Known about the structure:
Helix 4 (112-138) runs antiparallel to helix 6. This protein is α+β, with helices and mostly antiparallel strands and 244 residues long. The strands form 6 sheets. It has a 3-stranded antiparallel β-sheet with strand order 2-1-3. It has 3 domains: 4-64, no CATH class; 74-109, no CATH class; 120-241, no CATH class. The protein starts with a strand and ends in a 9-residue tail after the last helix. The chain contains 7 helices and 13 strands. Helices cover 39% and strands 26% of the residues.
Amino acid sequence: MEGFRVYLYDKNRNIIGIFLAPSQKKFEADKLKYCSEYREGENFISYTEIKNPVLDKKTGELREMTISEQVQAGILILSDGQYLEGEEIKTVTKPNEWSVWDKNSNAWKVDNDLLNTKLKELRTKASKDLVEAKLNFLNQALEIEKAGKKYTFENNEENRNRLALKFSLMSLLEQDKIEKVKVLNDKGLVEFIELNKTELKVLAKKIQDIVEVADMAEQMAVVGISRYNIEQMSELKVSDFFQN
């Protein structure tokens, strides 16, 4: 079995060595027998390891530093958001990216430069997201029903332009129907179907409604992005403006 441990320190509170004795009682009865380096008045003895030793002014004995003593000595460094209350380290969670720690008041305080930088960053990102959100809304697929079957019109810019061109030619040539409208069937395969004037107008109306909603939503989003405060911008989802 491992013996009783004795930790020996010099006047500068540096550990000299660790010695073994059968027990504390036997060690104290004959210290030199188990620790030949011990010198009365020159060394300090401890029966537990002291990682941050300090001489107690009241007892004259060596002991472990308290938390506050470690902080004062620079052994323990408090991070931003931490402060000492008695012998306990308290932690205050950082509320946001634009606050800095004030050691005098032990509180997080808003830094206006950081706030304005973050606000600009959020607005820039929101403006970029707005372009994508509007495009996604404009390009939403539309359902077409023809002869009891359902099809999907891929409502992208290319197909819209193609459809508009065909509609113009149809009007110019006074045709009653338009052929080769590209759609997807219920299996996701490409088909070309025929639409008459009435069916074409229904599809065109759906597209126009989407365009009008998209433009209105974009205007609202632009106003919001320019006026919202930092908290509102942090929670903003531009896509929420675009709802059917």
